[in-house]
Amino acid sequence: MATPVSAAKEFISGPRVVQAASKLLETCPLPQLCEALTVAKGEDAEPLVAALEGLSEIEEVRTLFLEEGVTDFLTQGASAPDARLRLTVAKLLVHLAHGEVWSIASTNKLLDAGLFNLCEPLLLDDETGVAETAAKAVCAGVGCAAGKQALLSSPGSLTDVLLRRLPSLPDVQRIRVLALFVQLGRAGTECFSSLEQKGAFEKVLGSFLTDDLLLKLNAVELMDALGSYELGQDYLARSNVPEKLEADLLDPYCDGSVRLCVTRLLGFIAGRSATASELLLRSHEAPFPQSIAGLLDSRDITSRLCAIHAWATSTLQNKGLVFFLKWRPMLEEMVSLLGATQNEIAKGAMDAWTIVLQARMPMASQIFS
């Protein structure tokens, strides 16, 4: 007689299709697989985990994960001492929440089963892999209206709970939660506006605009991520951030990674806001253009590429374009970089000029094609 482990091994050894799933579940029903995993030791756990993940990827059998016996396993597994179980639950939640057709049809079942509530402890898990996987589940969950409501909008939503807990969280978990807010902002205007109204992005800014160097360094990636998409760039442009970021560039002891981050962000902001462009590019001696010039003179390729990209994005406003066209030494430098001996620099310069020209002449991309 086949055991859960042997049945799982047979399933994962072949194509993961409905027929194979049906054969596995006839031999070993889903609750029995879950129970076997809770007591599995050593190598026996691996095929069971793989089988459960494989089943959750098959749309025709996903509803089985919402049955009472299985949801009990997921609930208990989310707080299990064994990190493998917690990771398995997080992965299953990703599959259950993913996919537009599935989400629209079955998110209410996920909500009724309370499975989205499991994301909170998983997001704050000590194991990075568990937390990152749970974040993917949350991001998948906002892909439909019911998921947005539960995770973002309704009273006592997951984001409300996380915001309340934020001040008492250790640094690692706090940065992780802020990173989730930034990720969720990518999901669209509705998600971004909801988080902005709750003050989530103020918390992100506060983690970077601090005198605590360690906190600032930890928040560099957060700010880079927020500035990497248009909704985030627009938020930074209207949040009176440019003046505060300029202060970092004036600090002679400013950490190198912070300087790169700030220069990159100010390039985005100057390109999105005419008002910010006027402020940041008020003269050649202003902190932002001086930072671009200084980074261009660096021997470090990363620094030079940062300067090249910041130069390009800051020309997207007419003020920025006119400013840099009139700055003859800078203009000549940017033209000369097209023939740089270092491939990365030459390619970066080509990409920069493409950004500049495409903004004014849609067919300009053909120049470098």
TrEMBL record:
Keywords: Proteasome. InterPro entries: ARM-like, ARM-type_fold, PSMD5. SUPFAM superfamilies: ARM repeat. One of its GO terms (biological process) is proteasome assembly. GO terms for cellular component: cytosol; proteasome complex. The keyword Nucleus does not apply. It holds the Pfam family Proteasom_PSMB. This is 26S proteasome non-ATPase regulatory subunit 5. It comes from Cladocopium goreaui.
